[in-house]
Amino acid sequence: HSPLKLHQIRVKSSLPQNFNSYETLRQLYNPRVPEYFNFAKDVLDEWETKEKHLQHRENSGQPAFWWVNDGGDEIRWSFEELGFHSRRLANVLTGECQLHRGDRVLLILPRIPEWWLVNIACLRTGTVLIPGTAQLTARDILHRLQTSQAKCVVTDESLAPLLDSVASECSSLQAKLLVSDRKREGWLRLGDLLRSASAEHVCVDTRSSEAMTIFFTSGTTGSPKMTQHSHCSYGIGLTVNGRYWLDLTHRDVMWNTSDTGWAKSAWSSVFAPWIQGACVFVHHMPRFDTARVLQTLSRYPITAFCTAPTAYRMLVQEDLSRYTFPSLQHCLCAGEPINPEVMGKWKEATGLDIYEGYGQTETVLIAGTFKGMKIKPGSFGKPSPAYDVQVIDDEGNVVPQGTEGNLAIRVKPHKPFCLFTEYTGDAQRTAECFRGDFYLTGDRGIQDEDGYLWFVGRSDDVILSAGYRIGPFEVENALIEHGAVAESAVVSSPDPIRGEVVKAFVVLSSEYKTRSHDELRVELQAHVKRVTAPYKYPRKIEFVEQLPKTVSGKIRRVELRNKEWGRG
Ligand code: ATP
Ligand code: MG
Q1: Ligand 1 atom closest to Cα of residue 442
Q2: What are phi and psi of 64, to 5 degrees?
Q3: Ligand 1, pocket residues at CB < 6 Å
């Protein structure tokens, strides 16, 4: 197949011509939350009508959904086709699967087109979608089925046996849908049912406040939490992501690499791009392969690209001068802090800045760098207009600018409509997130005199050494500026005199792998003392082949810390 050559198809920004300041952004943001809202009906079906009048789509063949895999297979669906397939799937859910509005559906599929169809079909039927990563174990699945009381599960051949091994312990489960060419005892085959299903379906009129989805947090600090959102929360709340942070229009092709199990896939591979009528691009890769990613970025007319900081760290280790990215205009990252060094290298090679976003499964974008705003590397930008973000002390008082504190969102007198409803089945945990007038993110940060927010670390990751508070991110940023360091994780380690000291786990870049560790240790310590306040330097350094990470690629400092302190 020959991919389209659609250079520079994004001719304008979603932001108005006069958009030049953060203040304009706050003025522009004016969401209306109606009593009833359904993303399939109110957004996707609207685009289905509108796309017929969008000349460029017809001329260029730009779809609403564009899927490719490593084998050269390709699927392109317009909004009309997405509508057609998802209405048939909606009929399967209410027909053969006998699901009713409010019933829960566990969806465990890799990045295959059916994942998107199930997402939309759940919206159409008012069933509550619970996406899970394909890397779940039988125990994880059992826990999720029992906590959620899901009535239906959708998965593929690789996970069906795991499901069958625990299904007898899940009395609520009434339908199992299989995405496969082969038959399996006790399972309904989605493909067969779709073929015979009607494409006529009337979308359920869901209330804005009705439950829409339950996403799992990444499990960076402990076991993942089930986080429930309403129809308006992601469906309307992610407008701020799509319009202002991703800056998408219906001319854009957006590629976000997240795994289907995490909220980031709802943000940037479903709601935010489709709110703007943009094309959702998906490359189904069995694993993150840097060369493939770069080929895809240069080969397809992708205008906006979002991936995790860990992925950018891998990408800048490649020889980027071997590629050109003719269509790429906007690069983004979220999920962890991005090192200024990595942003610099990416810009040098592509000419493009990386716009950072900060948010949680529990929220939509909390803060970010928005188009037209000066980027201060190391800061994740300014608060999203959707929230009143403050830095507060442990008693719930706002602290002065320049002081470290808890990053928090004001929830009184009005709880923002785009904040999660609850942790499913865990009222106590939900209550613990709220203090005084605020929702606590569990992260620590500082606001500077220009209103930019700086990430210090997750509350548990901050190191207290000889009276100093040290955020791991600053030390990691200093380390990665040295050519020897591909990436690192900084945690506290016990010390008889100081109580805690800074310890760095360092993955060496390929050129330094054979160098003497003793020499490198001294060199890196001197380097950190030179580029940052000397008290932050890592007194201990251990060289490792890799760092412990979540499935979504986040560094699990908690694991390293527990090892240091002989816990867990
Ligand atoms: P768990 O809550 O299960 O421990 P998690 O917090 O990693 O996992 P997510 O909801 O996926 O689960 O991630 C949100 C967290 O990711 C934030 O609270 C913050 O710690 C971190 N994060 C996200 N974006 C950024 C960013 N731009 N800079 C720094 N940290 C970020
Ligand atoms: Mg969290």
Answers
A1: 18
A2: -90, -25
A3: 217-222, 224-225, 262, 334-337, 356-361, 380, 441-443, 455, 458, 554
Distance CA 467, CA 465 (A): 5
Q: Whose CA is nearest to atom 15 of ligand 1?
A: 360
Distance between alpha carbon 447 and the CA centroid of its chain, in Å?
23
Q: Which of 496, 89, 71 is nearest to 286 (CA)?
A: 71
Torsion, Cα of 270, 72, 83, 297 (10° steps): 30
Q: Which of 233, 262, 360, 376 to mutate to test the pocket of ligand 1 (most atoms within 8 A of CB)?
A: 360
Residue 555 bridge partners (DSSP): 549
Q: What is the pLDDT of residues 91-109, one digit of tens each?
A: 999 999 999 999 999 999 9
Ligand nearest, relative to CA of residue 359:
1
CA angle 14-18-20, nearest 5°? 90
Mind listing the pLDDT tens digit for each residue in 124-165? Answer: 999 999 999 988 889 889 988 998 999 999 999 999 999 999
pLDDT digits (tens, 9 = 90+) for 239-266: 999 988 999 999 999 999 999 999 999 9
The residue whose CA is least distant from atom 3 of ligand 1 is: 219
DSSP summary character for residue 139? H
**What's the rounded mean pLDDT across residues 290-300?**
96
Q: Please list, residue by residue across 70-102, b when 16 or more beta carbons sit within 10 angstroms of its beta carbon and e when fewer do.
A: eeeeeeebbbeebbebbbbbbbbbbebbebeee
Q: Which residue puts its alpha carbon closest to atom 14 of ligand 1? A: 360
Q: Is the pLDDT of residue 554 over 70?
A: yes
Burial 253-287 (b: 16+ CB within 10 A, else e): bbbbbbbbbbbbbbbbbbbbbbbbbbbbbbbbbee
Answer yes or no: pTM beyond 0.80. yes
Whether the pLDDT of residue 16 is over 70: the answer is no
Q: What is the pLDDT of residue 140?
A: 87
Contact present, 38 and 205 (Cβ < 8 Å): yes
**SS3 per residue for 166-189:** HHCCCCCCCEEEEECCCCCCCCEE
Q: Which ligand is nearest to the CA of 472?
A: 1
Give the orientation angle of helix 472-480 with respect to helix 340-350, to 10 degrees.
40
In ligand 1, the atom with minimum distance to the C-alpha of 473 is: 29
Q: Is residue 2 pLDDT above 50, yes or no?
A: no
Kind plus residue range of the DSSP H or E element containing 43: none
Please say if the pLDDT value at position 3 is more than 50: no
> What CA–CA distances, in Å, run from 420 to 38, 215, 357, 360?
17, 10, 18, 10
Nearest CA owner, ligand 1 atom 27:
358
